[in-house]
Amino acid sequence: MRRVTSLFLALCTAIGLAVLLPAASAGAAPACLTAWNSGQVYTGGMTASYNGRNWYAKWWTQNERPGSSDVWRDEGACGTGGGGEQPQPGDFVVTEAQFNQMFPNRNPFYTYAGLVTAAKKFPAFANTGSDTLKKQEAAAFLANVSHETAGLYYIVEQNTANYPHYCDANQPYGCPAGQAAYYGRGPIQLSWNFNYKAAGDALGIDLLNNPWRVEREPDVAMMTGLWYWNTQNGPGTMTAHNAMVNGAGFGQTIWAINGALECNGGNPAQVQSRVTKYQQFTQILGVPAGSNLSC
């Protein structure tokens, strides 16, 4: 329909006819189009919805995600009439207003829509047990990522001198993106080639060859953070998700993320920073912080 309309307008312009188009209804967002599919090839003129917005392909695409490339033109926000990528009210235990309250100075890269989209990849996250437990886990994750990124401000690791250190060349797949390509990115600062490989394999995204997607696509960034939270023990004895849903407490989430350096007196100031943020976030969500807060 878009092509027919465009040709009609061009013809009318060529012969000097004025064309009056109906005005859009004030305040009403158009329905979301069919959701973008990473497995589909889009050619010029095709459309899709993604993260609550409609997009128009200007030319042939090669799996570029809408919003990450000039291939796509942003057609504006859309409503709930289709396009399964749009987060809906009630999808997540933290509202957008609460998210904004938690991160008043966050980098615009970190979006609520990105968080909600990422959470759908891990249906047990903040969706296990009682409403209180769900909110406690959400607060625990967001408190830890707040600590890691200075309030969701930093997207990439700031100490560039560390960048070349995150390539384990002994891995059979090596470091195809380059020696210095696997620095910390995203809400839990994913680093090392083997972590990019594991996260990408789990998410169905080639992060080993294209680790830059973590710093360019908000939902991919959040997915890597939730991948670690839900599947990796780190230096701890359990995942951060299991720590919260099984009653081990917030302190065990610190172990899973950076316990080798911070826990058992390693850096009590850093531990307290995480605990304080968790207490603030549980207060915003209206739930108790629970026990076993420190490590």
From TrEMBL:
Claim: Plastid is one of the keywords in the record: no
GO CC aspect terms: extracellular region
Molecular function via GO: carbohydrate binding; chitinase activity
Region named Disordered: 65-89
Residues making up the signal peptide according to the UniProt record: 1-28
Disulfide bridge map: 167-175, 263-295
Keyword Hydrolase: yes
One GO BP: chitin catabolic process
Domain Chitin-binding type-3 per the UniProt entry, residue ranges: 33-75
Biological source species: Streptomyces termitum
Protein known as: Chitinase
InterPro entries for this protein: CBM5/12, CBM_sf_5/12, Glyco_hydro_19, Glyco_hydro_19_cat, Lysozyme-like_dom_sf
Active site location: 148
UniProt cross-references to SUPFAM superfamilies, sorted A to Z: Carbohydrate binding domain, Lysozyme-like
Highest taxon listed in the record's lineage: Bacteria
Alphabetic keyword roster: Disulfide bond, Hydrolase, Plant defense, Signal
